[in-house]
Structure formats: structure tokens, C-alpha cells
Amino acid sequence: MDALSVLRDYTARKELGNVHRVGDEFRFGNDYRFPCSTETGYRSKLGFFYTLDSLVFFVKSSNLKHTEYMQQARALKLQIVTYTDKKPLLDYLEGKVSTSDAIELLPPAGALHPSKRPRSDQDQPVDACLLIELVRSLERPVRDRETILLCPNKSFEGILSTLGRRERIEQQSQQQSQQQSQNSQRREPPSSSTDKFVKVEPDLKSAAAPSMEKRPPPPPPSSQQTLARSSSKAKIEGPPIILVPNASQTLLNTFNAKEFLEDGVYVLADAKKSAAAKKPETLPIYRKIGREIPVKYEVRDRPSALSSKDWERVVAVFVLGKEWQFKDWPFKDHVEIFNKILGVYLRFEDDSMESVKVVMQWNVKIISLSKHKRHQDRTAVLEFWDKLDAFVRARRLPIVF
């Protein structure tokens, strides 16, 4: 018997467990043995004969999905039974049909094979569908530099905003340097502007003195111009104030605001609360992100303790999304609040949108954090400072930012 008939006999009798590979040959019980590379008489619709090892693997893997079978056969470097050959070949091997048009008699083992196919075979057209199927079976997943850049669930808005901010700073620095060269005689000393609103700590100011002697530090975007325009306003004493919610169920409060706003690292409020000995009433922070000289701010969570002078220093508030947060505030409604104070809502990016339905009705900036990717915290903090800078510039507040 030929190899194909023997394999069909063992498959139909469900005795494939007695078919074993030993070395370079397959043994069918104690009755038959054939070399693994023996060509069977079953011709593919693509024109080639299937080898014995490819058919043995195919019939033993008939319970797998065709894609899984293709992957395993490719890994073993075996011929792959095409999808169009799969059903008729399996029906023949399992004995459901007695014969098939794809079966051809092969020459004896010792017969000479022709060196070339007859010209009539070469000129026969190949079915386009079968050719496409063969190409797909040999395809490999490939990545290029464009597909690698396609990152789902990734946002590069922070990087773009950083680059855009740097370009704006360079343009404004060039414009200001030109204006300073034209109006050098009328220019006021830098100390008068910094004393207007923000107190720089003596030790920090002295540490930066050597660099200030070499060259004047590049001023923040239009801060000197802002002060010049607002010189007619009353002098405001003390650092700017940022309000945070006085609540435990919030992402940011006085326990973790310092690490977040100063260093760009978010720490859970509960973790900082357990480590802190006492809750601070006034939390001083120094803005170092995007500044050569640190600028002092105050973080508070008790609006009821603020005086009228203190309210003039409030520049931003992290909202909780609850109406009670604004109780007894010296403003008539949300429109007036967020027209004078920058409103910011901090949330985790995978939280439901139900939590932001209320704040979306207010003039509030929404900033999202990742729960696990701490390297993205700095981007969120940079976004906050950028929005605060734009808010102060738009309203011409007497503040160095």
C-alpha cells in the first residue's frame, strides 16, 4: 500500500495513536514504515503534492482552528494544507468519501522523475483566489516606524504643549530683548517687579545671584509687561494662593499638594495623611517647573479663614464638583468665581464621565491623571501651570508667574 492509503486506513479506524515518528520515518504500528518526506498521491489545488509528514500533522491537528494550525505548521517548517483543500482532504482521510479528484497515482519509488514539468503544465493558469490564499498563509506580521508610532490610549498633548510653550517663550524673549534695547534708559530695575507680588526667599535669591550677575534671567512670558500695565493697581502683598478642597475623598488636598505642584509627582492623599503628624493650615510651595528662580505660592483649604486681602491673592482653585465647596464665598455665582479665579478639576483618566457632568457646566479646566503611570504626572502639572499662566496673562493680574 502507498503512504496515503495507509494513513487513510489508520485515520478511518481512529488508530492515529499507533502512528509514531522514529527518526526520519513514520511507523504505522508494526505493519508499515515510510520516510517522513514521502510525497503522497494527494495533489493540492496549487499544483504540488503533500508530503506524508505534513498530512500526519494536519490530521492530528484537525481539532484546531485553521489559523492556529497554520502557525504551528509554519513553526515546524511543514507544508500547510490550504483552506480550500482542508475539508475535502479531511473527508477523504476520515473515510467519509471513497475517492477524490485530487488523488493521482505517483510513479514507483525507483522511477526517474522528469527534470522539467511539461510545458502544458507551466502554461496552465493558476486560480487567483488560491494564489492569494497561499500568499496570506505565508504572511508575517511586520512593524515599521509608522505603525510603532500608532499608540492607542496614548496622548501626546503634553509634549506638544511643552514644545509650543518653549517656542512662545523664545519668540517673546526675542521681542522683549529688542524692546529692552530700544527703551534701556526707561527700563525699571527688576527688583521693583518682583517685590510687587511675590516674595523670593533670601536664601533662594542669593543662590541665584551669580547667574543673575552674568546675564539677566529670561523673564517669564510677558510678566514684566503685565506688571507695567497693572502698575496703577493697588499693591498686593504676599504670595499667590491656590485653594484645594477640605475633604478626604479628593485627589488633591494639603497633604499631597506639595509633591504634586512642586515636583510633578502624584502621591495618594491617604498615604500622605497617614505619614503626616498634623494637617497644615497654610502650605508654602515653590514653583520650580519652568522657572529658573523658584516662585512662592500658598496652598490653603479653608476659604472661610481668608480675609478680603487674601481673596485678592487667590489665583486658582481645585474644585471638588460639589456646591457646598463654594458656600460663603464672596461671589454671587459660578460665573463670577471662575471669571476671577482659575477653576481646575483633577480626575483619573479611567473614571466614568458621570463624575464630571457637573463641572462640565462650569468654566473649569479638566486635567486627567493616570492611576498607575507616574511618569505622566509631570505632564499634568505642566498643563496646570500653563493654564494658570494663560489665565493670569488674559486678565492682566499684578502677579509674577
TrEMBL record:
Coiled-coil annotated spans: none
InterPro entries found in the cross-reference section: Cdc73/Parafibromin, CDC73_C, CDC73_C_sf, Cdc73_N
Nucleus found in the keyword field: yes
Residues annotated as domain Paf1 complex subunit Cdc73 N-terminal: 2-122
Comp. bias intervals (Low complexity): 171-184
GO CC annotation: Cdc73/Paf1 complex
Residue span, Cell division control protein 73 C-terminal domain: 240-391
Subcellular location: Nucleus
UniProt-listed Pfam families: CDC73_C, CDC73_N
Signal peptide coordinates: none
Gene Ontology BP term (one): vegetative to reproductive phase transition of meristem
Region (Disordered): 168-232
Biased amino acid composition, Polar residues: 223-232
Molecular-function GO terms, alphabetical: RNA polymerase II complex binding
Record keywords: Nucleus, Transcription, Transcription regulation
Family designation: Belongs to the CDC73 family.
Annotated protein name in UniProt: PHP
Source taxonomy: Eukaryota, Viridiplantae, Streptophyta, Embryophyta, Tracheophyta
